[in-house]
Amino acid sequence: MDNCNQTIRCTVDKCKYHQNTKNLCSLDAITIGTHEANPTEQKCTDCMSFEVR
Ligand code: SF4
User: What does each C-alpha distance from 19 to 2, 13, 26, 38, 51 come to in angstroms?
Assistant: First the structure.
């Protein structure tokens, strides 16, 4: 995964799209969502493009 998107930084190393050494996402675009009915803080949001490694 050398041609990672330089603008999506991510530290979720259990995701199969994560680039370990650079902490980048290898997808061209990602979708962010929420699991909360009324999200109020950072931890309420999720990367919906996550797939387990
Ligand atoms: S898909 Fe989401 S969780 Fe996975 S590496 Fe990309 S930004 Fe991170």
Answer: 8, 8, 6, 31, 13
